């Protein structure tokens, strides 16, 4: 079942109110646009049929006008031959053709009014359709923005992001340990080689011998 009953309802409709009351504005605006498009097609098709009918009527009027001329000529011929009765009958037929022309002309005038009304309706429908499409673009943009914000927040606060940061913490801890081992290896200088330790012993013996000799000289001098 459509949202609108006929063209008048669409023209009088307040799209904003319909969307404000809708549970799903995106779905509602799609339905509104679809029904407007279908109605616009129907109104244009009806106008096309009216134009076709008018053309057919005008062709018929042209034929009736020629028929009237023909009956006039026949009436004149009948009078010229002294047949007033035939002339009168011919004029009766001419009158019938004339009456038919008048009826068709009146119908064409009615159809002209209908076409003017249809043109106004088409213009109003097109304006409503443009309004609805503008609202659709706005709703689509807002919906996309909302979805993007939701995905961004989910990404920022979600379990995957927390797990990623936890892994970063583990990696940083590993880097700290590696740097700690490197720093600890430099504490106290480099370990001495065997030759360095023996050389230090020899140097210490020389210093001790020199110290004893110095003590001995000082004792002799006393």
TrEMBL record:
What processes in GO biological process is this protein linked to?
A: phage shock
Q: List the keywords (alphabetical).
A: Coiled coil
- The chain's coiled-coil residues are 101-149
Any matching Pfam family: PspA_IM30
InterPro entries tied to this protein:
Phageshock_PspA, PspA_VIPP1
GO cellular component term, pick one: cytosol
The domain of life for this entry's organism is Bacteria
- Tell me which family the UniProt entry assigns to this protein: Belongs to the PspA/Vipp/IM30 family.
User: What is this protein's name?
Assistant: Phage shock protein A
